Amino acid sequence: MKVQVVVGLEIHVQLSTQTKLFCGCPVRFAAPPNSLVCPVCLGLPGALPVLNKKAVDYAILAAMALNCQIASFTKWDRKGYYYPDLPKNYQISQYDLPLGKAGFIEVQGDDGGIKQVRIRRVHLEEDAGKNLHAGGAYSCVDLNRAGTPLLEIVTEPDITSAAQARALAVELQRIVRYLGVSEADMQKGHMRFEPNVNLRIETDGQAFRTPIVEIKNLNSFRALEASIRYEADRQVQEFLESGQVMTSGNKTTRGWDDVRQVTVLQRQKEEAEDYRYFPDPDLVPVVINTSWLDQIKALLPELPLRRQIRFVQQYGLSEYDAGVLTSDRSCADLFDKAVEAGGRPKRVCNLLTQVGLRVANERGCSVGDLGLSPVNLATLASMIEEGKVNATSGVRILEQMIATGQDPMTLARSMDLLQIADSSRLESIIDQVLSMQQKAVQEACSEGKKAQKAFNFLVGQVMQATKGQANPTVIAEMIRKRLGGA
Amino acid sequence: MDNLIDKALVRKVASLARLELSEQEVKEFTGQLCAILEYFHKINLLDTEGIEPLAHCLPITNRLREDQIQPGLDPGQALKNAPDRDGDLFKVPPILEEGLGP
Amino acid sequence: MLDAILQMDCLALAEAIRTRQVSSLEATSACLEAIDKYNQKIGAFLTVFQQQALDQARDVDRRIQAGDKVGPLAGVPIAVKDNICTTFGPTTCGSKILANFRSPCNATVVERLMRADAIIIGKTNMDEFAMGSTTENSAFGPTHNPWDLGRVAGGSSGGSAAAVAARMCFGALGSDTGGSIRQPAAFCGVVGLKPTYGRVSRFGLVAYGSSLDQIGPLARSVRDCALLLNVIGGHDPKDSTSVPPEIVPDEDLLARLDQPIDGLRIGLVKGATEGADLPIRQAIGRAVDTYRAMGAEVVELEIPALDYSVATYYIIATAEASSNLARYDGVHYGYRSPAARDCMEVYTRSRAEGLGKEVKRRIMLGTYALSSGYYDAYYLKALKVRNLIRQQIFAALGQCDSILMPVAPTTAFSLGQMAADPLKMYLADVYTIPANLAGIPAISIPVGLDGAGLPVGVQLLGPAFSEGRLLRIARILEKGAHWTCQVPAGLTV
Ligand SMILES: [Zn+2]
Question: Does domain C2-304+390-491 have CATH number 3.90.1300.10?
Answer without folding.
Answer: yes
